[in-house]
Structure formats: C-alpha cells, structure tokens
C-alpha cells in the first residue's frame, strides 16, 4: 500500500472514531486550565527544580500519585503507582582515578580532565593490552561488525564515537543521521559482550560536528552543570567494566602504533565499510576508577494503567511517557524545568485523565509512565525496560513527551547545526520514525483532525545526538516503535529562565489532542506499527 493510501485510510478511520461520543468526551477532557495549573505547581520555586533524589523530586512524585488516584487510574506496580528505581550517586576522586599507557618499558601517566575524563559508579582497576575496534559496532542488520576480525577478550578496546559514513546522505547507517549503534552506552555494552575489560572512547577524527564534550560546552552553564551535579547510575546497571573518554591528542599517540593516523583509519572504514580493527602492538593500558563519594538512594517511576476492553488485546500495551525530574538548584538559583520536562509530565497526566474519563476504553491497555532520573542518563526508562511492568514483547508503541511546551528558536546549542523555521508556533518534531514508518503514517492521519505542522528534521541529525537523548531510546533498543514528541530547543534550555509563563499552552493542547487520537488508533486498530531495524536513507524520507 502506498503511504498516501495508508494516510487516507487512517484519516477515514479516525474521522469515524472522532465522531463517537466516547472519543469526543476524552478529547474534551484535555483542558488548558489543567495544564496551566499543574505546570505552575511543578515548575514553582517550592519544587526546587525537581532534581533526582532531592526533596523537590519527592514532592513531584507524590503529586503525580495523588493525581493518578484522583483520576481513577489503576496502579501498575501491583497495588502501587511507584516502581522503585535504585540509584547510586557518586563523585569521582580525580586524584586517584587514573589512566596510564605502557609501551615496552616506557610508561606514561595521563591527567584527569585533560587527557581523559569520565568514570564509573564502582571502584575498578584493570591492566590489559589495547586493541583498536573501530566504531565498536556490531550491526547484523547492516552486515557490519567491528569485532569480526579482532579478539577483544581480556583487552581494553579503543573506539571511535558515532558511526561510519556520517557525512554521506546515502550511508546505510541512516544517512547523515544516527542509528541506535551510535550510542556510547551501546558501544560499551557491546565491548563487554565481546569480552573487553575496559573501553577508551574518542571522538571520530574527521567529524564535522562538536564532540560530546564540545556539545555540552555550547549550552550556557553546561560545563558548570557537569561539575556541580554529581553523576547518578542504576544500582543494578548492566555495565561492569570501566570506560574513559580520551582526548584527540591521546588517540593520535595511541594509534600511532598502527602506523596510521586516526583520520586515515576512519577514512579507510568510511570508504569501504570494512572494519580496520587491530591490536595495538606492544601497547597496554592501566585504568583505575576511584570514588570520593558514593551513596545509594531510591527514586521512583510513577506508573498507572487504563486497561483495554478486548479480552485478548488488553494484554498488549501502548505507553505514554515523560520524565518529571530536572536539574534542581545550586548557588541559590532554581532550574525550574517548566518545558524540560514539566510540559511532558503534565501532558501524560492530562492524557491519563482523558482516557480515564472516556466511558468507552480502547481494546489494548494504556500505560502512563512518568520516569525518574532522565536528566542523569535516562535511568528511570532504562530501569523500566530492564524490569518491565508489562511484557515488552507485547508493548506495541511508545509516545514519549519531552519538551512539548515551547516554540523552537535558535540557541547556542543548535547554532550552525540544524535549520529552524522562522515560525515554529504550530510545529511539532517527531524523532525516531525512521525506525517505524507505519507509526508516522498513523500520526499523520490523526493530524488531519488537528492541523499541526509535523517536522522530521531531527532524524537527520548526528551532531547533537538527539535520537539518544530521551526516554523513548531504551525502548527502541528493544525494537519497540518509540517516538520522541518534541517542540524543540530554545535559549532557556537548562537555564533558570525555563519558566511557566513562557509555555505555549494552546500548542500543548493541540499536541495532546493529536497524541490522544494517535494513542486511540494504536490501542484499537487491528494492527500496530512495526519496528524497522534498517531504516531507509536519503533525507527526511
């Protein structure tokens, strides 16, 4: 079926659905007054920026529980709305955390925050020979494996960040965009799977974008944020080996053992799509992570359920998600997080009320998940997919809201990297439909009744790693159609000025109406969107 025909059929189906009194009642339950009242509270000074494991975050949790209960939403964690997320908060001991390189009898000790940075929530020490493993990717769907001809067992692996052929619009790796394999966590887990005992990551030398560290520096206060907010990690996370990011200069020094420059190795891979993995002759490394502080804590995912009415299909699940945490306060300044992500949080809450208010429920069940600790590394959503409350194999789609309350405007973070329209007051970005064209078709059909301008430009981004940066990503790693609904960056991103009076509530209401119709279709249609592991390439598709 052509995409045009599919959209037309979806529009007809939705037109019929919208004419029903049950659907109208749910849509009419989405109210700007609710959104404004809820967000005014969540972004108030009293919640102190909702930093994970801090008092304001705990208040937000209890508020959401009370509102779910008031709306008549069923608890999803047994008799409770709260799924515990065990966390570790830590600070690296920069004096004792170390990296040393040995070549024969020569040993070089490197400097933390100059030659290398990063760490681990656990104290670890490894000493092993070093192998270069290209981009560190194993991607059978693309016929590509950096580990095919190199033995990483018991070794420390040196890896390029991102993906091959990132400057080629026709690359199998999503053209100039990203796939799941560009993610650093995925690379570390893949190295661990191949028996590596440590990972050294370096920005690819021929990049046309900022490194991850340079990207952070583009955000006003970003470097201060990284210093002031102690990292957090899942207490039972999958990673058990140390990893450091290293400087470009150190990578040049290490890879000299191959007889080639890093840029030459990258070019060879990008031209041929054949790995250049190899041991680094007579080269070993010692990695040690040491902690200055470490404490355990528990945050919570707030999760409620509206059960479907079909005796069989009610066992399948459609997820509406967001995260409630933000950056907290320091130096007497509160990061209010009205858009990031108070907007998404109140959006999920309002949709829960809308579906609960409908006298007729859809066939499949709806899970409303408001995740913990997204700002600390998507921790709540990673925990959920590792400990799902509904089977992942019958989770059919995810609608994830993160920053749905503003108009996208130029900022230092995006300058020169992405094209932003002069007027985005009616625009919504959808991120990740490269992996589910059928999902996109359903949204576009529903949008015939709403009239937003849908933009897919972020699927063609590699510079800002957008695809990896919100709570839909852990679901996509499990090959679940999961899309980030996003109204874009603005100069108030992660600033004290992200406040409630700047929210475009009329636009939020339209987005939630579109999500209601889309979610109803996912939950009631005969078939649901599939996941496409190898996306089409060549622009915005």
Can you characterise this structure?
With 541 residues, this protein is of the alpha/beta class. 30% of the residues lie in helices and 22% in strands. It has two domains: 3-89 and 294-403 and 438-452 and 463-524, Zn peptidases (Aminopeptidase, 3-Layer(aba) Sandwich); 94-289, Glucose Oxidase, domain 1, CATH 3.50.30. It has helices at residues 3-19, 21-28, 32-42, 55-71, 184-193, 212-218, 222-228, 248-255, 262-272, 338-357, 379-386, 437-447, 473-477, 505-524; strands at residues 74-75, 82-92, 98-103, 106-109, 116-117, 124-132, 138-139, 144-145, 156-160, 198-202, 232-234, 243-246, 278-289, 291-306, 317-323, 329-330, 333-334, 365-371, 395-401, 427-431, 453-455, 482-486. The strands form four sheets. Strands 1, 2, 11, 14, 15, 18, 19, 20, 21 and 22 form a ten-stranded mixed sheet that branches. An eight-stranded mixed sheet has the order 4-3-13-6-9-10-12-5. A two-stranded antiparallel sheet has the order 7-8. The radius of gyration is 23 Å and the shape is globular. The two termini are 16 Å apart.
| Helical content (DSSP H or I, runs of 4+) | 25-40%
Label the overall shape. globular
Please name the CATH topology of the largest domain: Aminopeptidase
Largest β-sheet summary: 10 strands, mixed
Q: Strand tally, please?
A: 22
CATH superfamily of the largest domain: Zn peptidases
Radius of gyration over C-alpha positions, nearest whole angstrom: 23 Å
Distance between the termini: 16 Å
Low-confidence stretches: 1-19
* CATH class group of the largest domain: Alpha Beta
Task: Compute the number of structural domains.
Answer: 2
Beta-strand portion reads: 15-25%
Helices, by number, come to 14
- Mean pLDDT across all amino acids: 93
CATH architecture annotation name of the largest domain? 3-Layer(aba) Sandwich
Secondary-structure content class: alpha/beta
């Amino acid at each position: 079926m052509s995409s045009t025909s599919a959209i037309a059929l979806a529009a007809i189906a939705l037109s019929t659905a919208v004419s029903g009194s049950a659907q109208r009642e749910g849509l009419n339950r989405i109210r700007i007054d609710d959104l404004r009242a809820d967000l005014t509270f969540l972004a108030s000074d009293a919640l102190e920026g909702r930093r994970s494991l801090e008092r304001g975050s705990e208040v937000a949790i209890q508020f959401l529980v009370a509102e779910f209960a008031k709306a008549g939403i069923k608890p999803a964690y047994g008799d409770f709305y709260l799924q515990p997320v065990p966390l570790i908060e830590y600070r690296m001991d920069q004096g004792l955390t170390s990296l040393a390189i040995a070549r024969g009898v020569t040993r070089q000790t490197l400097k933390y925050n100059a030659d290398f940075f990063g760490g681990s929530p656990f104290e670890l020490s490894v000493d092993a020979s070093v192998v270069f493993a290209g981009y560190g990717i194993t991607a059978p769907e693309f016929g590509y494996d950096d580990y095919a001809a190199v033995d990483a067992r018991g070794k420390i692996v040196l890896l390029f960040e991102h993906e091959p052929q990132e400057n080629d619009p026709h690359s199998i790796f999503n053209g100039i965009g990203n796939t799941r394999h560009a993610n650093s966590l995925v690379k570390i887990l893949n190295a661990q799977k191949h028996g590596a005992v440590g990972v050294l990551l370096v920005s690819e030398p021929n990049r046309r974008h900022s490194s991850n560290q340079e990207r952070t520096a583009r955000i006003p206060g970003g470097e201060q944020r990284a210093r002031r907010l102690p990292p957090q990690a899942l207490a039972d996370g999958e990673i058990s080996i140390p990893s450091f990011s290293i400087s470009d200069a150190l990578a040049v020094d290490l890879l000299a053992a191959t007889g080639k420059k890093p840029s030459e190795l990258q070019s060879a891979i990008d031209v041929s799509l054949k790995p250049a993995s190899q041991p680094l002759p007579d080269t070993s490394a010692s990695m040690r992570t040491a902690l200055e502080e470490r404490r355990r804590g528990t945050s919570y995912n707030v999760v409620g359920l509206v059960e479907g009415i079909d005796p069989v299909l009610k066992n399948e699940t459609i997820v509406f998600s967001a995260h409630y945490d933000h950056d907290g306060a320091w130096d007497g300044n509160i990061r209010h997080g009205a858009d990031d992500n108070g907007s998404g949080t109140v959006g999920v809450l309002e949709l829960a009320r809308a579906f609960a208010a409908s006298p007729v429920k859809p066939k499949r069940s709806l899970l409303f998940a408001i995740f913990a600790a997204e700002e600390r590394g998507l921790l709540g959503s990673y925990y959920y997919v590792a400990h799902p409350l509904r089977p992942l194999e019958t989770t059919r789609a995810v609608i994830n809201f993160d920053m749905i309350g503003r108009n996208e405007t130029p900022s230092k973070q995006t300058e020169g990297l992405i094209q932003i329209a002069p007027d985005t007051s009616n625009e919504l970005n959808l991120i990740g439909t490269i992996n589910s064209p059928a999902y996109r078709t359903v949204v576009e059909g529903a949008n015939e009744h709403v009239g937003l301008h849908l933009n897919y430009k972020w699927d063609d981004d590699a510079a800002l790693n957008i695809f990896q940066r919100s709570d839909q990503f852990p679901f996509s790693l499990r090959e679940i159609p999961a899309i980030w609904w996003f109204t874009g960056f603005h100069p108030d991103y992660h600033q004290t000025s992200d406040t409630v009076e700047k929210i475009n509530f009329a636009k939020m209401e339209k987005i939630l109406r579109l999500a209601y119709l889309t979610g109803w279709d996912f939950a009631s249609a005969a078939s649901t969107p599939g996941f496409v592991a190898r996306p089409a390439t060549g622009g915005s598709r």
